[in-house]
Automatic annotation (TrEMBL):
Name the record gives this protein: tRNA (guanosine(18)-2'-O)-methyltransferase TARBP1
Any Pfam family the entry gives: SpoU_methylase
Residue ranges of coiled coil: none
Species of origin: Anser brachyrhynchus (Pink-footed goose)
Key words of the record: Acetylation, Methyltransferase, RNA-binding, S-adenosyl-L-methionine, Transferase
Length: 1273
C-alpha cells in the first residue's frame, strides 16, 4: 500500500490517477485526522522516492523534485496552524513552487496544477478570514502576474472553490489607510484577474467559462457586496462577443437574483454592471430585442403594448440621427412620421377610426414627445428634434379636439376605459410643453381646450351628483376629477402660459372650495359589471372588482391635488359670498379641510399622500393657535406614515421630503415657537425621532437639515422681515443644528462595509453631508448681526454642556469610540465659531474650556482645546490671568492635564503677539514652566522642556536682564537634554516630541482653516478615517453655498503633507521588516509531523478514545495518573502535555471533565489523540496494585523525607506518575503504596509549583531519558 501511494506522488502530465485524486482529497478534507494522515503518507512517499532502488525517480530532475515536495509539505503543514503571523512568511514560497512546477523550455506543467489548488483550497476553507483573504489575493495576483500555462483544472477551481470563497462579504473591506470612497483591494484584484485570465484562455473556451461563471452567480443566494464586485469584474472585461442566448438568459437570471438584496444603491449598481456586461459580452443586435420582448410580455390587456410604442419612438430618433450630419435629408424621417400624422389629423373629424389604431397612434405620439423631452430641452440644440417637433405641431388642434370629445362625453364608460383615459390625460401636458418649446401660436387653441375641459368636467361632475350612481356615472366622475387634476398641474408647471386668467379658473376655485372631500365610490356589483361585459366575463372580474380600490384611491388623491392648487393660488378661501356656507369664517372652513386631510391619510395608500401633506402645510399655520390639538394629531399621523415607510425604498424619500416641507415649514415653525405650547414640544420630539431614524437609515437627517438651513438663511421671500422671522426659527430649534454638529454613526464591522460601499457609489447619502451642511450654515453667520450672535452663543453653550455630559458619563474612553468622536466634533465646531464670539461672552466661556482641559482627553480633543486656548489668549491677552490660575491646582488634579497647558506655552510666541508689555508675562511663564521641568513624570518633563525651550528663546530675543543669573543653569540644562546619550527611549522621545507636528509645523494662526480643522488635524492625530471631512465635500454639497469672499478655506501645504505620527509610540526596532516586501524568508516556523515512525490506522470511523488507543503511539510506557486533580484547567494542560510527549495513557477521576469548556480550551483537542482512563480517587489503591503486578514502578510527584531529586533520578521504562491534589498533594494513605517519590529542586522561596507544571517537568524528563537510551541502542 505504501508503494502504491508513493508511486502517484509525481503525477503524469497528461492524465491523473484515482489514487492521486484520493491523496489530494485527503489533503483538503475538512477532518483534521484525514489531513494529517494524507500529509504523513505524502512525506513517507517522498522519503522513499529518494531511494532509486525502490521507486522510479527522474535522476536529472532529482533536485527540483526534492525542493518542490519539501516546500509543498512545509506549506501544507504551516496552514494547519491557522495563524496568519506564522503563515504569511511562508506565502512567498508559493512562488517558488510555481517556478519548480513549470518547465521553462516547453512552457508546460511538470507537476499537475491540482497540487497547487490543494494549497489554495485549504486557505479558502480556513476559519481565519484573514488567511482566507490572503489566499484569495495571492491566487488572483499570481495568475495575473505569472501568466501560467492554461489548464482545465484552473477554470474548474475558479468557478468552484474560488467563487465559494468570494461569497464572504467581510473580505471586501478596506485596508488600513485606504481612503473612503476607494475601491477595496480585492475588488480591484478581481477585476484585473478576470480580464487577464479570460484573455489567456483559448478562444473556444472563453464562452463556456463565462457561462459557467455567470451560472454560478445565480446558483446561490449572494449577499449584496460579493455580487456587486463580481458584477463589476464582469463589466470590466474587454469587449468580446462570446456569450450566446444561454449567457444572456443567465445574466437575466442574475439580474432577478439581485432584486432580493436590501440596499437599493448597491442593488442598482450591480444591475448596471450586469447590463454593461451584457453589452460587452453578447451580440446585442441578435439577442437583445428577443429577450426584452419576452421579459415585458403582457396578457389580457385592454390597451396595446406600451413597449412597442417605445421601441418605435426610439427607432425613429435613432434612424434620423444616425449620421449626425448638418445637411440632413428629411425624406426618410418624413416617411416614418407621415403615417402617424395622417391618423392624428383625422382624429378630430373622423369618429370611425378603429380604436386600436387610435390608441397605437397616440401611444407613439406620447413616447415620441417624452423621448424628445429627455434628449434635449432646447430645440435649437438638435435639428432632428426641431424637425420632429414642428411636424407634430400640425395635428395639435385635431388631437385636442379628439381628447376633449373622449373625456367629456360618454365615450369612456367602463373600468377598462380608464387606461385609455390615462393615455389622453398624459398627452395634454406634453402637448402644452410642445407648444411652449416650438411656438406659442397654438396658445389660443390650448386655452380654449383648457376652458372647455374645465367647464365640461365640472358640469359632468354636478350632473352625476344629482342621480343614483351606476358604474357608468362613477367612471364619469373619476374621469372628470382626473381631468381637473391635469388642468391644475398644468397651471402650476406652466405659469408663463397665464392660464389662471381663464374664466373657468374661478369656477374651478369655487367648485373645489366647497367640494365634499374624501368622497368614495361605491364598488360595482358583480352582476352589474357582468351585464356590461357579456362577451368577456373574465375581464369583468379582473378589471372592475379587484382593481376598484386603486381607482377610489386615485379619485381621492386627485381631489387633494386640485385643493393643493387652489390653496397655493388662492390662500384665502372664498369669503364674503352670498351663500350661508361661504359666510362662515375661514378658520372654520380650514379646520374642516384639515379634518378631512387626516381622514384622507387614513384611507389613502402611503404612496399617494403627498398632495395631502402639501395641503396640510398651508392649513396648519392658520390653525395652530385656535386648534392646536388637531394640528398635533396631524403631526402624529404624518409621522406614523413616514416611520412605517422606512423600509420601503421607492416611495420613502419622496414622502419624507413632503413630510419635512410640511412639519418644518417656516410659518409652521414660527407659529409653534411663538406659542411655546404642545405643538412646539411635539416638533422637537419629531426632530429627535428623525435623528434616531437617521442612525439606521442613512440620509434622513440630510433631508431635514438641508431644508431647514436653506429656509432659515435663504428664505424664498425677498423681504427683510421674512428673513428675520425665518432665522428666528434657527434659534427656537437650535437643537437641530447642535445635533447636526455632532452627528455621525459608529457602525459595526458588517454595517461599516455596506456604509463604505454606499459612499463608494453615491455621495448623496453620505453621513458627512449633515455635518458639512451645519458647518457651512455656521460659516454664513455674521457676528455683527444680533440674531446671529445670540444664536451662536446659544450653540456654544449647548455644545459645552454636551461635552460635560459626555465626560461625566464616561471619564475614560477609547480612541475612536462614540464618546471620542462626539467630543472631537464638539470641539471642532467650537473652534469654528471662536472668531465670531465677542469678548464678554468668551470671558465666561473660557472657564469651561479650561475645565475641559483638566479632563482625560484623547489626543485629537486635546489638540483642539489647546488650539482654542491659544487663539483666545492671542486675541484677548487680558485672559492670561485665568490661564495662570490653571497651574495653581494641586498635583492630583493636574497629573492628567498639565501637558495640555504646557502645550499651550509651547506656542507662547503666538499668544504674546498682541501684548505690549511682554517681559512681565515672560517672567511669569518662565517661573511656571521651570517647576514642571523637575516633575517625576517623564512625559510631563518632556512637555515642560519643550515649553521652556520656546520661552527661553523668547527671553533671549528680548534680552530680559532679570534672568541673567538663570542663564547658565537653563542653557546647560537644555544643552544636556539635546546631547543626552544612552540606549533607552529618552533621547528618541525628546527628538520625537520636537518633531511632532503640533510643536514643529503647526501654526495656530496660519493653519486656521476648514481643511485643517476637519481634515488635516484629525488625520494627523490618528482619528478614524471616516471622521475626516475632505475639502471637496464642502464644494460638492452645494445646498448651502459658502460666501464668495470666504477666506480661511485651505490648509497650508507644510501641514497637509505631513504623515500621522505619535511621539510616544514605541520603537519597533531595526529588524522589523514587512512581510509583503520580501520575496522569500530564510527561515519560518515549522510544526513537526506526528507519528513519524508509525503506521496510521485505517479505521476512520472509530470514536475518539478507541481511535487514540490505536494510533500506534504506545511505544512509551509512561502512565500519568491525575485522578486526585479536580481543576479542569490543570487537567486540560496535562492532557496536552501527555499527548505531545507520547504518554501511553492519562488517568483522570472522571471522564466528564473532557466536556468542560475550560478543559477543552487548554487541551486543544489532545483528548482525541490520547487514551484516557477513568479511575476514581477511591479506586486508586486497587489500580496502583494492579499496575505493580504488570511491572510498573509507581512514582509519586511529592516532597517527602526520602524523595529523590529529579535531576538525579533515572526513570524505568515502565513508569507510572502519580500527581497529587492542587492543595493537599498526595494523601498519606497513598504514599505507602508508592515505590519512590521524586521532587523538583527549587531555588526560590515559594513552596511549590503548579501541579500541571510539576507533571510537565517530570513527563519531559522521562521522555528525555528514554530518547537518550534509544539513541544509545
Amino acid at each position: 500500500k505504501e508503494r502504491d501511494y508513493t508511486c502517484v506522488i509525481q503525477r503524469k502530465r497528461s492524465s491523473g490517477s484515482s489514487q492521486g485524486k484520493l491523496q489530494e482529497e485527503g489533503l483538503t478534507e475538512r477532518d483534521g485526522l484525514c489531513r494529517r494522515r494524507a500529509r504523513y503518507l505524502l512525506k513517507r512517499a517522498v522519503d522513499l522516492c529518494g531511494k532509486p532502488s525502490l521507486f522510479w525517480w527522474s535522476a536529472e530532475e532529482n533536485e527540483t523534485l526534492l525542493q518542490f515536495w519539501e516546500t509543498y509539505i512545509l506549506v501544507m503543514e504551516t496552514l494547519e496552524g491557522n495563524q496568519i503571523h506564522v503563515i504569511k512568511p511562508v506565502l512567498p514560497k508559493l512562488n517558488s513552487l510555481y517556478e519548480h512546477a513549470i518547465s521553462g523550455e516547453k512552457g508546460c506543467w511538470l507537476f499537475h496544477p491540482s497540487w497547487h489548488m490543494c494549497i489554495y483550497k485549504r486557505m479558502f476553507e480556513s476559519e481565519n478570514k484573514t488567511l482566507t483573504k490572503e489566499g484569495i489575493l495571492h491566487f488572483l495576483e499570481l495568475y495575473e502576474t505569472k501568466h501560467l500555462p492554461n489548464s482545465l483544472g484552473f477554470s474548474e477551481f475558479v468557478i468552484g472553490p474560488l467563487m465559494d470563497a468570494l461569497s464572504e462579504s467581510s473580505l471586501y473591506s478596506r485596508t488600513p489607510g485606504q481612503l473612503m470612497g476607494a475601491c477595496p483591494p480585492l475588488g480591484m484584484r478581481l477585476q484585473n484577474f478576470l480580464a487577464t485570465y479570460l484573455m489567456l484562455l483559448p478562444e473556444e473556451e472563453k464562452g463556456s467559462f463565462l457561462l459557467k461563471f455567470i451560472q454560478k452567480m445565480k446558483s446561490r443566494h449572494w449577499c449584496a457586496v460579493p455580487i456587486l464586485f463580481l458584477s463589476m469584474a464582469l463589466a470590466c472585461i474587454p469587449v468580446c462577443k462570446v456569450l450566446g442566448t444561454d449567457g444572456l438568459q443567465a445574466l437575466r437570471d442574475v439580474l432577478q437574483c439581485t432584486m432580493i438584496t436590501h440596499q437599493i444603491l448597491l442593488r442598482g449598481a450591480a444591475q448596471c454592471y450586469l447590463l454593461q456586461t451584457a453589452m460587452h459580452l453578447t451580440d446585442v443586435v441578435s439577442f437583445f430585442f428577443l429577450l426584452v420582448i419576452q421579459i415585458h410580455q403582457r396578457e389580457n390587456c385592454f390597451m396595446p403594448d406600451w413597449f412597442e410604442a417605445k421601441l418605435v419612438a426610439t427607432m425613429i430618433l435613432l434612424a434620423a440621427d444616425v449620421d449626425g450630419k448638418s445637411n440632413i435629408e428629411w425624406i426618410e424621417l418624413e416617411a416614418f412620421l407621415n403615417p402617424l400624422l395622417d391618423v392624428l389629423m383625422k382624429l378630430g373629424s373622423n369618429a370611425y377610426i378603429p380604436t386600436l389604431k387610435t390608441d397605437k397612434s397616440l401611444q407613439l405620439l406620447l413616447k415620441l414627445l417624452q423621448t424628445c423631452s429627455l434628449k434635449c430641452s432646447n430645440t435649437q440644440d438638435d435639428k432632428v428634434l426641431s424637425f420632429i417637433w414642428k411636424s407634430l405641431m400640425t395635428p395639435v388642434e385635431s388631437i385636442l379636439e379628439f381628447i376633449l370629445r373622449q373625456l367629456t362625453t360618454n365615450e369612456l364608460s367602463t373600468v377598462g376605459d380608464l387606461d385609455r383615459c390615462d393615455l389622453y390625460l398624459a398627452l395634454i401636458p406634453e402637448i402644452v410643453n410642445l407648444c411652449s418649446q416650438v411656438s406659442w401660436k397654438k396658445l389660443p387653441t390650448v386655452k380654449n381646450f383648457i376652458l372647455s375641459l374645465t367647464n365640461a368636467s365640472i358640469r359632468n361632475f354636478r350632473e352625476t351628483n344629482c342621480k343614483e350612481l351606476k358604474l357608468k356615472e362613477q367612471i364619469k366622475k373619476v374621469i372628470s376629477m382626473a381631468s381637473l387634476t391635469v388642468v391644475c398641474e398644468i397651471m402650476d408647471r406652466k405659469p408663463e402660459a397665464h392660464l389662471e386668467a381663464l374664466p373657468s379658473v374661478d369656477a374651478l376655485k369655487r367648485f373645489i372650495s366647497f367640494f365634499q372631500f374624501n368622497e368614495v365610490l361605491k364598488k360595482p356589483s358583480y352582476i352589474e359589471e357582468k351585464s356590461r361585459y357579456v362577451f368577456c366575463p373574465v375581464l369583468c372580474e379582473e378589471t372592475s372588482s379587484q382593481g376598484w380600490g386603486k381607482i377610489v384611491a386615485r379619485y381621492v388623491r386627485d381631489q387633494w391635488i386640485c385643493l393643493r392648487f387652489v390653496l397655493n393660488t388662492f390662500p384665502m378661501l372664498a369669503q364674503e359670498e352670498e351663500t350661508s356656507e361661504l359666510s362662515s369664517s375661514t378658520v372654520e372652513r380650514s379646520k374642516k379641510i384639515l379634518q378631512s386631510a387626516l381622514e384622507a391619510l387614513t384611507i389613502l395608500p402611503s404612496d399617494q399622500v403627498l398632495p395631502v401633506f402639501d395641503c396640510m402645510k398651508v392649513l396648519v399655520p392658520k390653525l395652530l393657535n385656535s386648534s392646536e390639538s388637531l394640528c398635533i394629531e396631524a403631526f402624529d399621523l404624518a409621522w406614523k406614515i413616514i416611520s412605517s415607510l422606512s423600509n420601503t425604498q421607492l416611495i420613502f424619500w419622496s414622502n419624507l421630503k413632503a413630510f419635512v416641507q410640511f412639519i418644518f415649514d417656516t410659518e409652521v415653525l414660527a407659529v409653534a415657537a411663538s406659542a411655546k405650547g404642545q405643538a412646539y414640544a411635539k416638533i422637537k420630539k419629531i426632530i429627535f425621532k428623525l435623528i434616531d431614524l437617521s442612525a439606521t437609515k442613512t440620509g434622513v437627517f440630510n433631508v431635514v437639515l438641508s431644508h431647514c438651513c436653506r429656509s432659515w438663511i435663504f428664505p424664498a421671500v425677498d423681504d427683510r422681515s421674512a428673513l428675520t422671522n425665518a432665522f428666528l426659527n434657527a434659534g427656537n430649534y437650535c437643537e437641530l443644528i447642535t445635533e447636526a454638529c455632532v452627528f455621525g454613526t459608529v457602525f459595526r464591522r458588517d454595517q461599516s462595509l455596506t456604509f463604505f460601499l454606499l459612499i463608494f457609489y453615491s455621495t448623496n447619502r453620505d453621513d458627512h453631508y449633515v455635518r458639512v451642511c451645519a458647518i457651512k450654515f455656521l460659516c454664513l453667520l455674521d457676528g455683527s448681526n444680533t440674531l446671529h450672535k445670540m444664536f451662536m452663543e446659544d450653540i456654544v453653550s449647548k455644545l459645552l454642556d454636551k461635552d460635560e455630559q459626555v465626560s461625566r458619563s464616561r471619564t475614560r474612553y477609547y480612541a475612536n469610540s462614540l464618546q471620542h468622536r462626539i467630543k472631537n466634533r464638539i470641539w471642532q465646531t467650537l473652534l469654528l465659531l471662536l472668531p465670531k464670539l465677542d469678548q464678554n461672552f468668551l470671558c465666561g466661556t473660557l472657564d469651561k474650556v479650561f475645565q475641559a482641559g483638566f479632563g482625560n482627553n484623547q489626543a485629537s480633543v486635546k489638540y483642539f482645546i489647546e488650539w482654542i486656548v491659544i487663539l483666545s489668549l492671542h486675541k484677548y491677552p487680558q485672559f492670561l490671568s485665568k490661564f495662570w490660575d490653571c497651574f495653581c491646582y494641586d498635583e492630583e488634579k493636574l497629573k492628567t492635564s498639565i501637558c495640555t497647558f504646557l502645550s499651550v506655552l509651547s506656542h507662547f510666541d503666538i499668544i504674546l503677539q498682541n501684548t505690549s508689555e511682554k517681559k512681565p508675562v515672560l517672567k511669569k511663564a518662565l517661573i511656571v514652566v521651570l517647576q514642571w521641568c523637575f516633575n517625576h513624570n517623564f512625559s510631563v518633563r518632556l512637555y515642560a522642556l519643550v515649553a521652556l525651550k520656546k520661552i527661553w528663546g523668547m527671553c533671549r530675543m528680548l534680552h530680559v536682564e532679570e534672568f541673567e543669573a538663570l542663564t547658565p543653569v537653563i542653557e546647560s540644562s537644555l544643552q544636556q537634554v539635546e546631547n543626552m546619550h544612552g540606549t533607552g527611549n529618552a533621547r528618541r522621545n525628546w527628538q520625537r516630541i520636537q518633531d511632532h507636528f503640533f510643536f514643529a509645523t503647526f501654526h495656530p494662526l496660519e493653519d486656521y482653516s476648514l481643511e485643517a480643522i476637519f481634515y488635516t488635524l484629525p488625520r494627523l492625530s490618528e482619528v478614524a478615517e471616516d471622521e475626516w471631512i475632505s475639502l471637496c465635500k464642502f464644494d460638492r454639497f452645494t445646498d448651502i453655498p459658502l460666501p464668495p469672499t470666504f477666506q480661511w478655506y485651505q490648509s497650508r501645504t507644510e501641514l497637509l503633507d505631513l504623515k500621522p505620527s505619535d511621539w510616544t509610540q514605541q520603537d519597533m526596532g531595526s529588524n522589523s521588516v514587512e512581510t509583503d516586501g520580501q520575496t522569500e524568508w530564510t527561515d519560518v516556523q515549522k510544526k513537526i509531523i506526528p507519528w513519524k515512525n508509525s503506521t496510521p490506522s485505517l479505521d476512520l470511523e472509530m470514536v475518539f478514545q478507541d481511535r487514540a488507543a490505536k494510533l500506534g503511539k504506545s511505544n512509551s510506557r509512561l502512565i500519568v495518573v491525575a485522578s486526585l486533580i479536580d481543576k479542569p484547567t490543570n487537567l486540560g494542560g496535562l492532557c496536552r502535555t501527555s499527548e505531545i510527549f507520547g504518554a501511553s495513557a492519562l488517568v483522570v477521576g472522571s471522564l466528564h471533565y473532557i466536556q468542560d469548556k475550560q478543559f477543552q480550551h487548554l487541551s486543544v483537542s489532545a483528548e482525541q489523540w490520547l487514551p484516557l482512563v477513568e479511575v476514581k480517587p477511591s479506586q486508586l489503591v486497587d489500580y496502583l496494585q494492579q499496575k505493580k503486578t504488570e511491572g510498573y514502578t509507581i512514582i509519586g510527584v511529592e516532597q517527602t523525607a526520602k524523595s529523590f531529586d529529579l535531576t538525579e533520578y533515572c526513570f524505568p521504562e515502565k513508569s507510572l506518575l502519580l500527581l497529587g491534589n492542587e492543595h493537599e498533594g498526595i494523601p498519606a494513605n497513598l504514599i505507602h503504596h508508592l515505590d519512590v517519590c521524586v521532587e523538583i529542586p527549587q531555588q526560590g522561596i515559594i513552596r511549590s509549583l503548579n501541579v500541571h507544571v510539576s507533571g510537565a517537568l517530570l513527563i519531559w524528563e522521562y521522555t528525555r531519558q528514554q530518547v537518550i537510551k534509544q539513541k544509545q541502542k
